[in-house]
Design brief:
The protein is α/β, with parallel strands linked by helices. The protein is 43% helix and 20% strand.
């Protein structure tokens, strides 16, 4: 018995995957292809993707916002969990990375559920707000450049409906957020945003030690 989160050893992680993960073959193949990419560490953990898909189902979310696509693992997981008519507005800046995502979106049969917006995410989000989409989205997932997180957080809150759910990835940043000796721009940005969300009366937050840290923030 323990009154705090149990440390996840390699053996326990293997057990967790063996007894929890249900991963479609197309996602397993994408995960293995991305693992060979020089920046493969940017891909979310498979158990995190499964958890986020469960949140989509639990909240009956239909309109999703994704900030940061990379090779498409999270967008496929989320799209597969959407009900008929559900859509994802997916923001990314890289044509190279999202070419892989598009290939796997087609293979997974979810390409028609995903509206990819290529360009700086902040410009895309501001454009959505200007077009009158504030309060339209049910769930938003942020997994992009860390120094931009605060701005993405603010725009995502605007675009979410009351009762909408905001997810932020990498909020533990390999443990660096808890090390005062680390002061690079990414760590400082995440550390500041974690403190901001903790004190933000606009949301009900919970920071989970899942994968590299996942914050859930319910818009009040």
């Amino acid at each position: 018995m323990s009154n705090k989160t149990v440390p996840v050893t390699d053996a326990l992680y293997t057990y967790l995957l063996a007894n929890s993960l249900r991963e479609p073959e197309v996602l397993r193949e994408l995960r293995e292809e991305t693992a060979r990419h020089p920046r493969g560490g940017m891909q979310i953990a498979p158990e995190q993707g499964q958890f986020m898909a469960l949140l989509v189902a639990l909240t009956d979310a239909k309109n999703l916002l994704e900030i940061g696509v990379f090779t498409g693992y999270s967008s496929i997981r989320l799209a597969l969990a959407l009900p008929p008519g559900g859509r994802i507005t997916a923001c990314d800046i890289s044509e190279e990375y999202t070419q892989v995502a598009r290939r796997y979106w087609e293979r997974a049969g979810v390409a028609d559920k995903i509206d990819l917006r290529l360009g700086p995410a902040l410009e895309t989000l501001d454009g959505l707000i200007a077009a009158g989409h504030s309060g339209r989205y049910d769930l938003a997932f942020i997994d992009a450049d860390k120094t931009g997180y605060d701005a993405y957080y603010e725009r995502a809150l605007d675009l979410l409906r009351p009762g909408g759910l905001l997810l932020l990835d990498n909020v533990l940043w390999g443990g660096k957020v808890a090390d005062p000796a680390v002061s690079d721009p990414d760590t400082l940005a995440l550390r500041a945003l974690n403190a901001k969300i903790h004190a933000d009366s606009r949301v009900a937050p919970s920071l989970l030690p899942l994968a590299d840290g996942l914050t859930l923030a319910l818009k009040l």
